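Technical annex B. To support the medicinal chemistry partners, we prepared a structural model of the target in complex with pyridoxal-5'-phosphate, based solely on the information shown next.
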Amino acid sequence: MSKRAYNFNAGPAALPLEVLERAQAQFVDFQGTGMSIMEMSHRGKVYEGVHNEAASRLLNLLGNPEGYKVLFLQGGASTQFAMLPMNLLTEGKTAGYVKTGSWANKAVKEAKLIGETFVAASSEEDKYMSIPDVSNLVLPENAAYLHITSNETIEGTQFGQYPDTGSVPLIADMSSDILCRPFDLTQFGMVYAGAQKNLGPSGVTVVIAREELLTNSPKHLPTIFRYDTHLDNNSLYNTPPSFSIYMVNEVLKWIEEQGSLEGIEKKNREKANLLYDAIDNSGGFFRGCADVASRSLMNVTFRLASEDLEKQFIKESEQEGFVGLKGHRSVGGLRASIYNAVPYESIKALVEFMEQFQKKNG
Ligand SMILES: *Cc1c(COP(=O)(O)O)cnc(C)c1O
């Protein structure tokens, strides 16, 4: 087999090799049907089995709390930025947003097009290099929900503690850190995530929500944008992205094999510690961007002394087989995305490359 790249892409991102190999083995003839999963009806028993298994596996990993439902939708997390306020930010209500960075700002921008919003907390003054204090939020009585971005993919920050919002539903965009560690789903009214970072390939967005938040879509909303449409039709109202959902199911199986969320968290902490320690122990040659207490387990952002040196770092890293280390164009610098499927060995190789680079240029 050809050598796998050291893949630090932010999204679409690395998938577990075991999952790719299993999918390859099942690619042409799925379960003896004489066709691939992509070629069969989404209304047939075989596909529906996979579809339902993916949903129940996901809830299982989250402890199967009562009253929660899974939807498989399309249009990415970006569509949820709009669909969420379309469905829940109704007349006379206001929606709270915690402004933590690029993705949170995109979410609030869409909500403003739909209805009234307020900023519940913000780290804008800190250039979004930290997660603001959310321990004592006071929310208005007519708050439809409070929205947070559990992990800011571009800035490299992540919530430690989630806010307690009482009876106001807490809603999280978990696109870049879902299932990176255990979390208590019952703290949330809804979480959603585009699959292409921690759950599978692009093409499907997972919504996990308390059922009562999915049943009250305003009457005027077009059918396809209504949560109740997808709930009532088991996410089969229209043709689902069947191959992506099949892949999500395989990734979820793989997570179970890693010791479920506890096992995954242990590995993720080992990986992140290895990389952050290398940055912190470089005597200032590499500098972490995010506030230490807000550092992400998934997206490690760091800088060198000059942009020229960063360009050289990226160029030389590419020659050595490293992919995706350039920071997002909006913030610059360097970023290593170390999602669930990125193996420890890739980070070890990166740390060795960083040491070599510092020796030559430090
Ligand atoms: C990648 C990402 C998105 C956008 O996802 P799409 O599927 O491209 O719409 C939204 N939020 C966060 C936190 C992300 O990391």
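Notes passed to the chemistry partners:
The pocket of pyridoxal-5'-phosphate is lined by residues 11, 76-78, 103, 149, 153, 173, 175-176, 194, 197 (CB under 6 Å).
DSSP finds nine helices and 14 strands in the chain.
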